[in-house]
Amino acid sequence: MTSIPKTDFKKVLKNLYVASAAPALVDVPELAFLAVDGVGDPDGPGYREAVEALFGVSYGVKFGLKRAGVLDYSVMPLEGLWWGAGERQDLPALDRSTWHWTMLVMQPPQVDADLVAETVAARTRKKPSGSLERIELRNVVEGPSAQVLHVGPYREEPATRDRLMAFVGESGYQISGKHHEIYLSSPTRTAPEKLRTILRYPVTAVSVAGGGG
Questions:
Q1: Mean pLDDT confidence for 151-173
Q2: N or C: which end of the chain has fewer CB within 10 A?
């Protein structure tokens, strides 16, 4: 069997998966993700089950494409969209039980809904989970966005987020989408002070009123 070169989509999409402590603007194209929606504390069992199911399907899809001789690639990192009940971006400060989230793993173009359905069915037969039936292939469109790298514990993100918000305003933009996090480090294998997380928000230019005509 001919070996297939392995693709690293973090390098292909380098500007989206590499960030620095200096906030920057990026243009995010439409991308496909495996997605699972939920509500509740990210330290709770429902969240953990959803993430486990998401990665189970992600690896199943990857190995399916590799066995078929279509593509070999590294599974992408976990990402999450976060928002509060009835809100577009901001999370409530304390009550994590009300947090809404969509956890995501980016997929290559060769992944289609049929492959995902087959993989979910196979995973369900092997290890049933209530989260599996909620996993779907979904396109996400963010477009112009601002992002920054946060290094350290998740609980210290607000200071980094404030710097990003200040940059957005100073650059003539406003937030136009959900709080987006990309987890470049595993919290189970990385010390809290070394965790690397990209914080991102879609943005739109602030319109300037006035002018004659």
A1: 96
A2: C
